[in-house]
Design brief:
212 residues, mainly alpha, three-stranded mixed beta sheet, 48% helix, disordered C terminus
Amino acid sequence: MAQRDKLDALLPFVPYRYRPDRKPPYIRPWMVPQALWGFNLRAFLAPEDWNRIRKEAYARSGSRCRVCGGRGPRWPVEADEGWAYDDERRIQTLKGVISLCPDCHGVRHWGKTMTEGGQDAALAWMTEVNGWSRSEAARCGDQAMKQWHTRSRHTDWQCDISWAIRTYSVVPIKDGETLARERNRKFVQQAQSRVGVKVRHATHIEHLIGER
């Protein structure tokens, strides 16, 4: 309980799902273009710098999910990097790092969840958290997939992590770009293997959907 004139001060600490100034969707798929798989802070920063950033995100939320306020059964939360996409210049820009429970994180990384066979559970969770019907949640997932296919047609995406450099005074490691590209190849191969087919570029999840 809080007095109304104190509410604004509390809002930054309230999970998105319960904030009166926010409306659904509180959680939705936000998929990384295939050319940028592996391009993240874990690749570009020294382990101690990445650990400091993610652990500060956990502390800010009290080790609870910023979206639903919950915790996972095996570990409370996971670090989620929030990216914005400039589709004209094809730049992925880091906007921040927040804590998400494994269920909400699975919705965000919709493509990975699908290739691992967890799409039904993620769809049910998106339905519950957003207060949607199953068809509304499915439509949101379909729209995210179409957007992902459009973005994944391009291979010239760039990754901007200046937020982390500016906020935490970290210095990217020398071989970060090379490591990111190696991880990209690994992740693409893993996705293809999970689906069980050898396909070109951005079609492996499309093939999965076609078989359902």
